[in-house]
């Protein structure tokens, strides 16, 4: 089956999957773009499940201050410094800091169970799993701190 280059490029940019994975998914889906995208996401989530439990000793500390009234520090960890420097990882750290700022969870377990503020159909844990599927490494929220003026 002939794979259209435009579909291959679009699928790769939207999923961050490798070229051969995108081509294989498009071929398996018979050229159906949506089906191919779902295949890649399913495979990514399967791979993410295999990553659970791997040691996370690298990462970043993300700081967020909202209107000078609420401040948050989040320690987000991954397996390698290489992934810690990627845009996807940095964006995830920022989104988690926003989540902590707005929802004020009591601990990491509660944070991960919260509905994601930008898409209530997802939990924060689902958001983390999506990034794990993209970057191919385990990611954990180690801890966070939230301080509000007057609290």
TrEMBL record:
<comment type="similarity">
    <text>Belongs to the EF-Ts family.</text>
</comment>
<dbReference type="InterPro" id="IPR009060">
    <property type="entry name" value="UBA-like_sf"/>
</dbReference>
<keyword id="KW-0648">Protein biosynthesis</keyword>
<feature type="domain" description="Translation elongation factor EFTs/EF1B dimerisation">
    <location>
        <begin position="71"/>
        <end position="147"/>
    </location>
</feature>
<dbReference type="InterPro" id="IPR014039">
    <property type="entry name" value="Transl_elong_EFTs/EF1B_dimer"/>
</dbReference>
<protein>
    <recommendedName>
        <fullName>Elongation factor Ts</fullName>
    </recommendedName>
</protein>
<keyword id="KW-0251">Elongation factor</keyword>
<dbReference type="GO" id="GO:0003746">
    <property type="term" value="F:translation elongation factor activity"/>
</dbReference>
<dbReference type="InterPro" id="IPR001816">
    <property type="entry name" value="Transl_elong_EFTs/EF1B"/>
</dbReference>
<comment type="function">
    <text>Associates with the EF-Tu.GDP complex and induces the exchange of GDP to GTP. It remains bound to the aminoacyl-tRNA.EF-Tu.GTP complex up to the GTP hydrolysis stage on the ribosome.</text>
</comment>
<dbReference type="Pfam" id="PF00889">
    <property type="entry name" value="EF_TS"/>
</dbReference>
<feature type="region of interest" description="Involved in Mg(2+) ion dislocation from EF-Tu">
    <location>
        <begin position="80"/>
        <end position="83"/>
    </location>
</feature>
<dbReference type="GO" id="GO:0005737">
    <property type="term" value="C:cytoplasm"/>
</dbReference>
<keyword id="KW-0963">Cytoplasm</keyword>
<dbReference type="InterPro" id="IPR036402">
    <property type="entry name" value="EF-Ts_dimer_sf"/>
</dbReference>
């Amino acid at each position: 089956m002939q794979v259209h280059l435009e579909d291959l490029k679009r699928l790769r940019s939207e999923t961050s999957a490798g070229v051969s994975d995108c081509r294989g998914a498009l071929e398996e889906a018979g050229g159906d773009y949506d089906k191919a995208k779902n295949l890649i996401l399913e495979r990514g989530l399967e791979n993410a499940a295999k990553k659970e439990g791997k040691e996370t000793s690298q990462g970043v500390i993300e700081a967020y201050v909202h209107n000078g009234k609420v401040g948050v520090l989040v320690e987000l960890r991954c397996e390698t410094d290489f992934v810690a420097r990627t845009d996807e990882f940095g964006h995830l750290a920022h989104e988690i800091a926003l989540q902590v700022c707005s929802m004020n969870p009591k601990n990491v377990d509660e944070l991960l169970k919260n509905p994601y503020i930008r898409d209530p159909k997802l939990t924060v844990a689902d958001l983390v799993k999506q990034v794990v599927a993209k970057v191919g490494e385990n990611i954990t929220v180690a801890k966070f701190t939230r301080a509000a003026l007057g609290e």
